[in-house]
Task: structure prediction
Amino acid sequence: MTTAIVRPVGILIFAFMCYGALPLSTVSAQQPSEQTKEYKPLSELPPSEQFPAARLLVGAYSFVIIGLFLYVVSVARRLTTVQREVERLEADVKRTGRA
Result:
């Protein structure tokens, strides 16, 4: 049952990581243009020199939220297993009459 969940989730996490890395690869492949020593506001830069930070931010938040969700699901499953074991042990103690 665990492998049935882990494999699709691993593929999903890999896809999010690849999606977030795409803007980095396109930006790093470009040659730097003529650098100036004066300050230029972001609104004055040409679109080819602006970094698409929104995609990276969404990718990072998605990655963290999915990781948190998987952690909570994992803890919930383990707690359910422990609860069943405690109930089984309580039934055994009542059945055998030990205190």
About this structure: The mean pLDDT is 77. The CA atoms of residues 17 and 54 lie 15 Å apart. DSSP finds two helices and no strands in the chain.
